[in-house]
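Researcher: Let's do a round of design. I'm pasting the structure tokens now; please hold your answer until I've finished.
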């Protein structure tokens, strides 16, 4: 069976975007894989609205055609996640957190009954058996530091949906030493390739 990768980019930049470069290199580590590309910066996703919430919490077999249309984009994004064996996310850190474009994606895929369920024991993720690789780039935020609100949040929400095998490739603090930050990330990608 062909390995499927969902490749998500979120950087507002194309020229000199480190997160885009790193995520592309991670995907290139999987020659022969089927790649689903989702660029949430180039093709912005809608934000959650009252109509969306109402449609989402209406049982699927009771939704009106209008409600089905409201959820169509979200349904497509969830289907991409379900098809993927590996999710590769190019993550630029904006103001210590994830870009709004990526948050819109999160809001549209974190759906009860589709990617997680509530149980008496608490929430249970439904997207188990998948792997995520986050290719992070930041100007001044150290990955995993107390001011990094991007990596912990993204790891948490992936885990909430059942994706607990998460690897972070970090080209961080590029404003202080861009060369060293990129070199460290490229070493991590080479280690991933060697382990594959």
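Researcher: That's everything. Go ahead.
Model: Designed sequence:
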């Amino acid at each position: 069976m062909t390995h499927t990768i969902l490749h998500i980019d979120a950087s507002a930049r194309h020229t000199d975007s480190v997160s885009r470069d790193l995520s592309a290199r991670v995907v290139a580590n999987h020659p022969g894989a089927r790649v689903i590309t989702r660029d949430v910066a180039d093709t912005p996703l809608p934000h959650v609205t009252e109509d969306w919430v109402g449609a989402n919490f209406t049982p699927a077999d009771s939704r009106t055609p209008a409600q089905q249309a409201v959820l169509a984009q979200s349904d497509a994004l969830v289907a991409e996640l379900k098809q993927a064996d590996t999710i590769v996310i190019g993550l630029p850190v904006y103001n210590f957190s994830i870009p709004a474009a990526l948050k819109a994606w999160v809001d549209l895929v974190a759906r009860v009954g589709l990617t997680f369920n509530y149980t008496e024991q608490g929430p249970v993720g439904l997207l188990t058996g998948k792997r995520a690789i986050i290719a992070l780039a930041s100007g001044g935020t150290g990955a995993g530091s107390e001011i990094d609100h991007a990596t912990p949040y993204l790891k948490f929400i992936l885990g909430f949906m059942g994706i607990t095998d998460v690897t972070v490739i970090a080209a961080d603090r590029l404003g202080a030493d861009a060369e060293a930050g990129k070199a460290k990330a490229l070493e991590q990608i080479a280690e991933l390739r060697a382990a594959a």
